[in-house]
Amino acid sequence: MVKPSHEGLNVLGAFNPGATKYKNEILLLLRIAETCNKKQNFVSVPYFNFIENNAKFEVLDIPENSKELELKDTRGILYKGVDYLTSVSHLRLARSNDGFNFAVDEKPFILPHNQTASFGVEDARISKIGDIYYINYTIVSGDGYSTFLSSTKDFKNVKQHGIIFPPLNKDVVIFEEKVNNKYIALHRPSNHGFGLPSIWYAESEDLIHWGNHICLLRPNKSVWESQKIGAGAPPIKTNKGWLEIYHSKGKNNIYSLNLMLLDLKNPSKIIALSKTPVMIPETEYEKNGFFGNVIFTNGHIVKENGDINLYYGSSDENVCVAEISIDKLLKSLK
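RE: above sequence
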């Protein structure tokens, strides 16, 4: 049972975990989505208000019959022309010795820190570079979503580095080693009417300032990629290239997982792509939930036998794991 972070909040789901190894443990950094108790005849929206950067949890109660209220889906509303989320998220650690049985910490690991994250922090990716674990995650507010970078060496003390990709940008993954003496990232800016949201490439000298932006991969407009695509977890280095498992959103809002192989020496070059998804929603918990027909990965663990534990969120509600052979994934590419 995951405990709420504040009195008056209820946990809706624990999902979309970043993943890494630390000492003898496997750590997941879960997105914990919470909502407030519903009041009769009202739509209640939780958020954080910041006065001099001190977070104060508040609730906006909106009459259900308000003409200025538009219910978009289970995840969002529009009120007086302003977007709100129906839940607020933070990041919390879960720990395991075997990669399958996890104990969730009682307290949050990363909470919203200022007004740019008043609607929460979401979907962390963890990249270990040297002895530092860099954690990037999406921060959300009424001004949009952007990508924030923090780091830790011990998963106790966290250093905040700031926004590295401004609004509207998310689904950022940072490679776990430099290529040609540059840090490399994949990211996903919002197109707003020009094409479909795609996976972009970028380089950096310091992990903060990013340049040489290239549109790397666009949705192929199939039934699986008719709406958008975005990167998953940090790419896996193989002898064939950098293997990236990415997500796509297609017909009927179904999310699936696909493969992309990038050149080892020039990651802005695509070597191969999967022709069909490697995973689609099939089980009851993948098809039905808070937001059904969603499988979304942003964390995995590479094991000594060449397999990976692929951790993924299902239906914006649960954490799941799939065991997958890297060799089989590579052989499926053409």
